[in-house]
UniProtKB/TrEMBL annotation:
Disordered as annotated region, ranges: 1-29
Source organism per UniProt: Allorhodopirellula solitaria
Bias-annotated ranges (Polar residues): 7-18
Protein name in the entry: Putative ABC transporter ATP-binding protein YxlF
Family (UniProt): Belongs to the ABC transporter superfamily.
Cited CDD domains: ABC_DR_subfamily_A (cd03230)
Documented EC number(s): 3.6.3.-
Keywords carried by this UniProt record: ATP-binding, Hydrolase, Nucleotide-binding, Transport
Gene3D superfamilies documented for this protein: P-loop containing nucleotide triphosphate hydrolases
Record-annotated membrane-spanning stretches: none
One GO MF term: ATP hydrolysis activity
Record domain ABC transporter: where: 34-263
Length: 271
């Protein structure tokens, strides 16, 4: 379990102020795999994320929690280098994701919010495409593809167009793409969104298995998800980090009830 480093809003701001957003070359701990340092994203005057700082150590499984529109996807896109931060910077396995994105991406598997694109491709076609794009050596390409087909249980749909697959299979195809190059860091944006209870069980099982060897940050707005899987919770609301600590600490904040804690910390947003 992560130490109960519960952090108030002001403490969160204090933490980010200690690190200069321009200090991209400063050394990070070798065990720190995901780092957000003062990340903000502005769309005109609107802040989708504001001064978000945290780090995830090797082997942790951290839930990134928040109500709809809190800024989870925006922060994840900045962490993965898909969008540029307005302020701050992100590092994956020590690589700054603006200056050194290719090196960081080799260590990173990313499941975007809406699963895989390329609806006209089959899962096999898509995996071959990504294997080539990622430069997997010919000698290991087939083995790697076979391995993710097995992990994600895709063999029954491997030659069907992705557009014809159920939501659950689409998510698994997205996951297979994220795992293909054997990254040691996974950033997964709502991996259980829209799945039925059996599919959710399957994804949780896969997550637990993967967390034995990988560092995982997964976003969700489902509280049971957090209690079922995570070592630690980072909660954001209206673009700001409002809690960073373990599930027990979150429960205490809500007087024994994580739902209550969520309600208090997110300004009484309805979920
Ligand atoms: N390109 C954009 N232009 C303007 N506003 C944006 C853009 N992208 C996101 N936003 C806004 O930023 C806020 C945060 O969005 P984001 O998708 O990061 O939230 P989220 O926590 O992932 O929500 P959800 O759980 O609904 O996916 C929302 O109000 C959203 O409308």
């Amino acid at each position: 379990m992560a130490e109960p480093a519960r952090q108030s809003d002001s403490a969160a701001i204090e933490l980010s102020n200690q690190s200069s957003p321009t200090a991209a070359s400063s050394a990070s701990s070798p065990t720190t795999m995901i780092e957000a340092v003062g990340l903000s994203k502005f769309y005109g005057p609107f802040a989708a994320a504001r001064d978000v700082s945290f780090s995830v150590k090797k082997g942790e499984l951290v839930a990134f929690l928040g109500p709809n529109g809190a800024g989870k996807s925006t922060t994840m896109k900045m962490l993965t280098g898909y969008i540029a931060p307005s302020e701050g910077y992100a590092r994956i396995a020590g690589h700054n994701m603006m200056d050194d994105r290719i090196a960081g991406s080799r260590r990173l598997g990313y499941l975007p919010e809406n699963g895989p694109l390329y609806p006209e491709m089959t899962p096999m076609g898509m995996l071959e495409f990504f294997a080539d794009a990622r430069g997997l050596p010919l000698g290991t390409k087939k083995d790697q593809i076979d391995k993710v087909i097995e992990i994600c249980d895709l063999s029954s749909v491997i030659y069907k167009p992705i557009s014809k697959l159920s939501k659950g299979f689409k998510q698994r195809v997205g996951m297979s793409q994220a795992l293909l190059h054997e990254p040691d860091v996974l950033i997964l944006d709502e991996p259980t969104a829209g799945l039925d209870p059996n599919q959710i069980r399957g994804v949780r099982r896969t997550m637990r298995k993967l967390s034995e060897t990988k560092t995982i940050l997964l976003s969700t707005h489902i509280l049971q998800e957090v209690e079922a899987m995570a070592d630690r919770v980072i909660l954001i609301n209206e673009g700001r980090k409002v809690y960073d600590g373990d599930v027990d600490g979150l429960r205490e904040t809500g007087h024994g009830d994580v739902n209550e804690a969520f309600h208090e910390l997110t300004g009484h947003s309805e979920i």
